[in-house]
Amino acid sequence: MERDEQTTPLWPATVLIPYRPPLAENLIADVCVVGAGIAGLSVAYQLAAWGRRVVVVDAGQVGGGETGRTTGHLTTVPDDSCVRVERIHGAAGARLAAASHARAIDEIERIVSRERIDCGFERLDGYLFPAPAEPAGKLEAEFGAALRSGIEGVERVSRAPLESFDTGPAIRFPRQAQFHPLRYLAGLAEAVERLGGRIYGESRAVGVEGGSTALVRLRSGHTVTAAAAVVAADTPFNDRLAVHTKQASYRTYAIAAQVHAGAVPRGLYWDTDEPFHYARLQTLADATEVLIVGGEDHKTGQDDDSAWRFSRLEEWARVRFPSMGRVARRWSGQILTSADGLAFIGRNPGDADNVFIVTGDCGRGLTHGTIAGLLLPSLIAGEEHRWAALYEPGRIHARSFGKWAGENLNAAAQYADLLKPGEISSPDQLAPGTGALMRRGLAQVAVYRAPDGTIKEFSARCPHLGGTVCWNSAEKTWDCPAHGSRFDTDGCVLNGPAASDLKPAKGEAPVRRA
Fold first, then answer.
1. What is the mean pLDDT of residues 55-82?
2. I need a labelling partner for 51 at 20 to 30 A (CA). Which of 16, 31, 252, 489 fits?
3. What is the structure's pLDDT at 400?
4. Per-residue pLDDT at 381 exceeds 90
5. CB 372: neighbour CB atoms within 10 A?
6. How confident is the model at residue 239, as a pLDDT?
7. Nearest to 128 by CA among 72, 77, 91, 179
8. Roughly how many angstroms between the first and final C-alpha of the chain, as a whole number?
9. What is the pLDDT of residues 26-37, one digit of tens each?
10. Rg of the chain, C-alpha, whole Å
11. What residue ranges do the domains of the chain occupy?
12. Percentage of the chain modeled with pLDDT above 70
């Protein structure tokens, strides 16, 4: 394990994925997929298996986005609770949602076996238990909704199997699973290429146009012309409002600590708290067992209190897993929560019929991404699919209006930041490796001082819809609190919906030496 206070995900330390060079020519394909994470590669794999010519382009490298920041849980249980999914989507919709996630886990297991991917895929039980002082009726209601949704084998138990902590009554969900997400992606990428697909890294898409053919334009100037395009880049940069008003970006946190072999029973564990917490074991290549704990979510860009969030995770874990050793890694990731608790997978609303999107992971991106691989090839081929209406991106459910209204009011309130005074009056006030907002006339400027003293200044207005970015001290990024776009210290976009970088501050070169 690494030294304490590491703020990079656990997974990159345990797997090396081969480098994919950038696209250096114009290409023609049957389908162009934007994004080489779990969603993009799942779609590409299934299309290639159907015999389609597939090109995958990614702004970074395979697994370099949010998939590598997940905790590797695979469950049929929605983050938003079975109760809420049933209330919004009805009994039939809840059953279809549960069945699709179960099918996704089965498909991952099938691919692991067929492609001989060494990713530690493992079936195990999941346990949901109440948060402290939680009303007993909440767990009982969840159990009833889980039964009605058809989750196979779900049952009440007197407690989760933790000898060191009495969870109280719990719900057991059999045949859940876990795996090493980047090892799986590495194998999936190799399978895509073996089936004839082509994957290009360092190839940022900046535009997607549908019509008689789909055209994907890259920042380099090269293009991919295809019969259809799929944007699977976490959040669709080719959409400004239709989808982004129906989902919200959250940061979620994780820590990893070594435990003695056998000290924690293997399983998935999570509680009913808000925000909830979850934990599982991961065995590393050297047979070391690591406890991974996650949770403490909050809206992207609206709290810079990561130290407190990590502390809360550790406090929660040490009560329930007292054998946990020193925290060796900690990191955060981005999730997109839809107003109705399910992902958006299908044709991009208001776009041509041959432009498709995958977004709104709702904390279940690994299974939602796999569902996209099972659903989109049928839609691209013009065929019907029993899941299509459930995941239709243009859907609107009246019963999710409260959540939709609350998230959009929250986003609108963030524009008040345009009128706030700066956090500093001079770049000289910044310590190396930190950033802050500074007002220059009517404009807010995002100022960063690099470890070597270099000062970098950008307009603090997000190029998506003009929100004011905020400094994220844990990830060293500029995050937009309105719709979740994120930018690195050079102003380059990391997460959409922004499709372009932060602009240099007016009157200044973008980079200068202090």
1. 93
2. 16
3. 60
4. yes
5. 30
6. 67
7. 77
8. 37
9. 999 999 999 999
10. 22
11. 420-513
12. 92
